[in-house]
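WARN retry 2 of 3 for item q-0093 after timeout on previous attempt; input resubmitted unchanged.
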Amino acid sequence: MEIKIKNLIRTYYQSDKTVEAVKNVSLNIPSNTVYGIIGKSGAGKSTLVRLISLLEKPDSGEVYFNDKRVDNLDKKEMINQHRQMGMIFQNFNLLSSRTAAKNIAYPLEICKTPKDEINKRVKELLELVGLSDRANAPISTLSGGQKQRIAIARALANKPEILFCDEATSALDPQTTRSILQLIRDIQKKMNLTVVMITHQMEVVRDACDRVAVLNDGAVVEEGTVADIFSNPKSETTKDFLSHLNPIADEEDSSDDGIVRWSEHGGKYTLRFIDEKTGEPVISTVSKKFDVTFNIRAGGIQHLPQKDIGTLIVDINGPDAEVEKAIEYIKTLGVNVEITGGKA
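OK item q-0093 returned
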């Protein structure tokens, strides 16, 4: 299901001040994709997802699902629309008085689904999330990752067309985060879902999303494919996120997907290498061709679903004219160069 939002505005009034949580935001979220919305605390991302998921009404603006306007539905239509959406939360929101299977069954019971259908659907979903053997387990006996898997299964119970994930991995350790993100991607492909992921972690965007919108102070400052955002970030907010990437380790893959900094000083330029460029001897070639030397301050390779993006944070030393020529030559090689103004 395609989602379109047009000129959404949401303002809150707190004591004697006005808070503009969402400022005239417009986005097109393609169907059958994993779409990330990233922002720091207070950027407005949680408010935005509440507007998109119809849990709140905007002060102004419009929300469309497949060209049908849905933000102005009456109560009965809104209930039916909500049943076509699933929601996963940071803190699971499971019912502690119910077993894993009974938690999954809960939304089906609310819809008065026949018992035989409920049992069949619950069994299918437990298999889908890899917890067939935990059907009768009390929630208190499950690990964090298992709880989130049950929460995912519950969100899928009514066969939604849209799945919202609000900081779904923030409470999990890095290895479990990687497995949950992979599960969500697998489910998205299998069920042709539109998945909207709200996060403050660029690692989540890197490992799970196809496209991303970057929010700052209630507004979208950048939007595009994840590969484009990582290889050629435009906004300072995005560049800051990328400069603080941390690795998400996997038990079977100990490769470092983060930016490793071995010098706390310097780093005026950021070089971003795309796909096959990550393996080419660019630094060596430029050093031989021009009267410059490189001091590498940090580096790493981001393994995106579509391609790899390599990053080097460097100082380029030499006569100003030679440095300028070297930078222009690097650009001709297909490497993006940013002036980052590293620490003095």
